[in-house]
Each structure stands twice: as C-alpha cells, then as structure tokens.
Design brief:
mainly alpha; Helix Hairpins; 3 domains; extended; Nucleoside triphosphate pyrophosphohydrolase; NTP-PPase_MazG-like_N
Length: 292
C-alpha cells in the first residue's frame, strides 16, 4: 500500500490495521475507551507545536490528530453505527447551514444580522438529531451485543447547563458553565465582587487547612479556582492560556537555575532553599533585562 494525499487512503490503512485476521494486534485490541487518552495527548501536542511555531511538528501532529478521527470512525463502522464519510458529510452540512450569510442565497446573505437566525438554525439541528436517533433506533438490531451504543438513548438536555460536555478539562468546563449561566443574567457585571469573592474563598481555604479536613481542603480549593476562572472571564482572559504561559515561564526560569548551578559546579538538589531562591531571582532578573 502506497501513501497518498487522498484521505480515502488513510481510511483504507486504518481498516487494514483493524482487520481481525491480518491487522495489527495492538490496533485490533483497542476500543473507544482505550483510545481516549491518545486523543487528548495528540490534541495537546497540536497546541504545543502551535505555541512553539514549529510548522513541521504542526503538520505531523495534525496528521496524528486526524488519525484519531479516522480511528473512531473505523470502530463505529465495524459496529454499524456510522462511517467516516458520514462524519465528513455531517460537519460540511453543519458549516454550510450555520453560515447562510456565506453559502446562502441572496436573501440569506442580506439577512446577515437577522435576529434569531442562529437560534433557529440550532433548533432545526436539534430536531433533526432527534429524528435521526428515532430512525436509527427503529433500524438497529434488537439482539445487538453493543447495547451501550443503541441509537436514541439520549440524555435529558432540558437544563441550561446540560449541553456542556462534562469531560472538558476543568478550566474549560468551568468557563463554559459560567458563560452559559451568564446568558440568563446569572453573572457578576463588575470585577470588584469577584475579587471580594476570591478573598472570601481564600479565607475559607485557610480555615479548611487549619481544620485538617482533606475533603474540605479540596472543595475550598476548587471554589478558589472556579472564582479565578470567573475573574479571567471578566477581563476576557483565557485561563488555560494564562496558566500555560505561567508554566512556560516557570520552566524557562528553572532551566536557567539549573544552568547557573552547573556553572557553579553544583546541582539544585545540593543547594539549600535560600541558595535556590538566589538563583531564581537571578533568572528572573535576567529575564526582565532581556525584555527591556
């Protein structure tokens, strides 16, 4: 089999890897659940390549991420749920429908700012998903060994927050929940009460620490983080990006500390905390001079 720029070749390769007789033993053993960690890892590797502005790595990592989509689609096809082509058709249909001001007729283009247009489109999509589930349920084999994938088993999504995926990373999950709540007015309109709330939560965390209750400590720390996300929203800051930026800064300063220690003929592990702090301040000062 030869490589190709045609996406169909990647689908063929995945089908061959999953072939029960001639495929790869590792790939054959995988399931939707076992692949999840790899999907998360590949997503973050794409982000890392972008932040490093490494075009070659980005090209490779995007390929790895695309493979995850093909992998899930192949397993779904094996169960008779859907095919990769259905995934492509679904997303192209969604993009066309959600952008009538780009792909629609003259009337749709002139109604670019029509009030309620987005809500109408979303309502139509929800209705069509419900109809598709009902149709699939009727066609699904009654004796299927994979009942957990039975079409039509839909959760009750009547609550405002029910549409927020619970598997999102904690910072993104918190931000999405807060944004949803804000659509009905449940939100602070100024930063001052958020800062006051942060101080209140910090005090409560100190009380929990003094009480030596591990569960209370975790709960109160969660409250602090949730409030910090709210503060980030108020100033239009992505909390995940802000934290990643700080982590990158810490890594750079720590690397500078290690290099300085080597120049002194020592290791960080041999140093006292005071000596380490001296190296930290040097690294920080060097960083600030570099900015100037």
């Amino acid at each position: 089999m030869q490589p190709s720029q045609d996406i169909a070749r990647l689908v063929e390769i995945m089908a061959a890897l999953r072939d029960p007789t001639t495929g790869c033993p590792w790939d054959i053993e995988q399931s939707f659940d076992t692949i999840i960690p790899y999907t998360i890892e590949e997503t973050y590797e794409v982000v890392d390549a972008i932040e490093r502005r490494d075009a070659q790595d980005l090209k490779e990592e995007l390929g790895d991420l695309l493979l995850q989509v093909v992998y899930y689609a192949q397993m779904a096809s094996e169960l008779g749920l859907f095919r990769f082509e259905d995934v492509v058709e679904g997303i192209t249909n969604k993009m066309i429908r959600r952008h009538p001001h780009v792909f629609g007729d003259a009337e749709a283009r002139s109604a670019r700012s029509a009030k309620g247009q987005w809500e109408r489109i979303k309502a139509e999509e929800k209705r069509e998903r419900r109809e598709a589930r009902e149709k699939a349920r009727a066609a699904f084999p009654a004796d299927a060994a994979f009942d957990e994938w039975t079409p039509g088993r839909e959760e009750n999504l009547n609550g405002l927050l029910d549409s927020v995926p619970g598997a999102l990373p904690a910072l993104a999950l918190s931000r999405k929940i807060q944004e949803k709540a804000a659509t009905v007015g449940f939100d602070w309109t100024e930063a001052a009460p958020i800062l006051a709330k942060l101080r209140e939560e910090t005090d409560e965390f100190e009380e929990a620490v003094a009480g030596d209750d591990p569960d209370a400590r975790e709960a109160e720390l969660g409250d602090i983080l949730f409030t910090v996300v709210n503060l980030a929203r108020r100033y239009d800051i992505d909390p995940d990006a802000a934290l990643r930026r700080t982590a990158a800064k810490f890594r750079a300063r720590f690397a500078a500390m290690e290099a300085e220690a080597v120049r002194e003929g020592r290791t960080l592990a041999e140093m006292s905390l005071d000596d380490q702090e001296t190296l930290w301040q040097r690294a920080k000062g060097s960083e600030n001079r570099g900015k100037r």
